[in-house]
Amino acid sequence: MNYTEKMSNFLLVILAGMAPWAASAQIRITQDVMPGGTRPLLVSMSGFTGEAAQVIQFDLFVQGFAFTNAEAAQYQLTGSNTENLQGRAMDRVADKSLVAKAYSGASLRRQAHTFVDDFLQSLSRMGLGNSKIAYRALAGQNGEIWVADFDGFGSTQVTKDNAFVTSPTWVPHKTALYYTSYKMGNPSIFHHDLLTGARTAFARYGGSSLSPAVSPDGSRVAMILSKDGWPDLYVGSTSGGEVKRLTRSREDESGPCWSPDGKWICFAAKVNERRSLCKISAEGGEIQRIPTSGVLNPTEPDWSPDGKWIVFTAMMGGFEICVVPASGGQVTQLVAGEDPSWGPNSRTVVFTRRQGSSRSLSLLDVPTKQVKDVSRIPGNSNSQPSWAK
Amino acid sequence: MKLNSFANLLVFSLIAAMAVTGCKKKTGYVTPLPPGSSAPVADAKPTPAMPLSQDPGATGGTGLTSEQLKDLEKSGSTQNPVGKHDGWPQDRETLKTSKVYFAFDSSAVRTGERAKLQTVADYLKANAEKALLIEGHCDERGTEQYNLSLGERRAVSLREELIKLGIDPTRLDTITFGESRPEVVGHDESAWKQNRRGEFVVLSPK
């Protein structure tokens, strides 16, 4: 008991000591991710060539850096990549060495990604270098699910259903997906373990079973089912059993996602004849509107892993990627595009761009609005991206 | 065989990936990773993991009472158990002139389209052994997730109307294709208005 008291006193001291730091850190982070209004950090690079240089430039560009000459840059990256990569990162303003490492093994690409991640880690930021995306590649009227590195390299086909397959979504912290496949006739939701290849029908009901989204702790799936009449929002345990109906509207709910604390499910709905973003407790309860001032017809919400923002698609003639504080409010329109999915760093988003009937994937750094296309994905129409978190 | 080699590859990737993360801090040494592969996942045989709906239909039979109609308005009509009409041959020809078209962003059946539903209901009454698959489709102006839900909502709307016209709900299945199967490929209203539609596919017993 004495020990417990001492422990809690000790913790209090620590927390009290941390408080000022926490407050200032919070302000800094808020400034850091101000959507669309942040200037890129200036970085210079020398000594790297070919693929290594391309990877470093790509990774840093989509995480809010811009390249300039050594004199103008705050951060200086130098190194070489003859066979293996060696890299150094300097903060010229603080006159401090941040990273000095030699890499070996794997591929040069992997070494370059890891160097960028080490650099970002030295700035207390999370790198994306080893993260994966899942997406749908269309082939005629059919679509199949693929996974790839977040920059589109190393793509691997996951399904071969010769059917319409759509809406892949990752199980958090697992190498597994849920998605909707029409393989068995009507659309049903499948779980697919990418390590074993084992696949199970998770939600197979009359009508259509659509748009799965897994809770952050991996225990529950939110989805749209029409088994009881209307397309409504349901939640079910990943271990099976009965599903719980959360909405009972005559309208079409769509595109659910979870708050990172697992308490809320956000989705698109029609409330009083107006398309809106809404949220509902994952246990059930009242539907609450999330105001999105300044835009119309919000759909496809995705809640950032840090809990602060919801990115979504506004349908206003064309499609606009938009972001709004998670509690609702003033919307920032970012770029033309649709179906955004946050990266694990809560600042980069992967989304779909349409050109005529063809679709491709791009990455958007939300604070700086820097956009770059994802490279080398097979097939001429790729969409429905989901970023592994 | 394919399944095994892919699984092995992925297991190896995971171990290698963990090795990278694990080693990074200590030495900066990167453990070799296998190159990206496009080896397909072998076809798994899905089995239902969840109990299927036990209720074959909300109302059953034809001729709804006014109370039943009210229930239908309030909570929707339960769909058939999945697989009820599995393997029934599909006939897209018979009712192809009865496609119902919808207004933008709407699943309401317009007055001008109601005669088509009467034709469909009459056909089903005259062919009591047959069932119907109702497909909901959308134009390309919605996002994909939104269109999948809207397409299903349109199909459900048509199902409701047919139930009101006296068709047994256990004969009526719905499916959504969102925007993935346009009737007309094009990027203007003349194409869009033909793509916002419901289609009726006749199912005959095996």
Features:
A: 389 residues, mainly beta, Rossmann fold, Neuraminidase, four-stranded antiparallel beta sheet, globular, disordered N terminus, B: 206 residues
Describe this protein's structure:
The complex is a heterodimer of chains A (389) and B (206). Chain A is mostly beta strands and 389 residues long. Chain A folds into two domains: 41-122, Rossmann fold, CATH 3.40.50; 136-387, Neuraminidase (6 Propeller). Chain A has helices at residues 2-32, 50-61, 108-122, and strands at 41-46, 65-67, 75-80, 86-91, 96-102, 132-139, 142-149, 156-157, 165-170, 176-181, 188-193, 199-203, 209-214, 220-225, 232-237, 243-245, 254-258, 264-271, 274-281, 288-290, 292-293, 298-303, 309-316, 318-325, 329-330, 332-336, 338-342, 348-355, 358-365, 370-373, 382-387. In chain A, the strands form eight sheets. Chain A has a five-stranded mixed sheet with strand order 2-1-3-4-5, covered by helices on one side. In chain A, strands 8-7-6-31 form a four-stranded antiparallel sheet, with no helix packed on it. In chain A, a hairpin with a 1-residue loop joins strand 23 (309-316) and strand 24 (318-325). In chain A, helix 2 (50-61) packs parallel to helix 3 (108-122). The radius of gyration of chain A is 22 Å and the shape is globular. Chain B has 206 residues and is an alpha+beta fold. Chain B has two domains: 1-44, no CATH class; 84-203, 60s Ribosomal Protein L30, Chain: A, CATH 3.30.1330. In chain B, strands 1, 2, 3, 4 and 5 form a five-stranded mixed sheet that branches. In chain B, helix 4 (144-164) links the parallel strand 3 (131-137) and strand 4. The model of chain B is unreliable at 1-62 (pLDDT under 50). At the A-B interface, helix 3, strand 7, strand 8, strand 11 and strand 12 of A face helix 1, helix 2, helix 4 and strand 4 of B.
How does the helix and strand content of chain B classify structurally?
alpha+beta
Distance between the termini of chain A: 39 Å
Shape assignment of chain A: globular
- Shape of chain B, please? globular
Distance between the termini of chain B: 35 Å
Average pLDDT, all residues of chain A = 90
Quaternary class: heterodimer
CATH architecture of the largest domain in chain A: 6 Propeller
Strands ordered across the widest β-sheet of chain A:
2-1-3-4-5
**Strands of chain B, total number:** 5
Q: Any idea of the CATH topology of the largest domain in chain B?
A: 60s Ribosomal Protein L30, Chain: A
Regions with little confidence, pLDDT below 50 for 5+ residues of chain A: 1-31
Overall SS class of chain A: mainly beta
Contiguous helical run count of chain B: 5
Biggest protein-protein interface? Answer: A-B, 90 and 76 residues
CATH superfamily descriptor of the largest domain in chain B: OmpA-like domain
Query: Which percent band covers the strand fraction of chain B?
Result: 5-15%
- Please state the average pLDDT score of chain B: 76
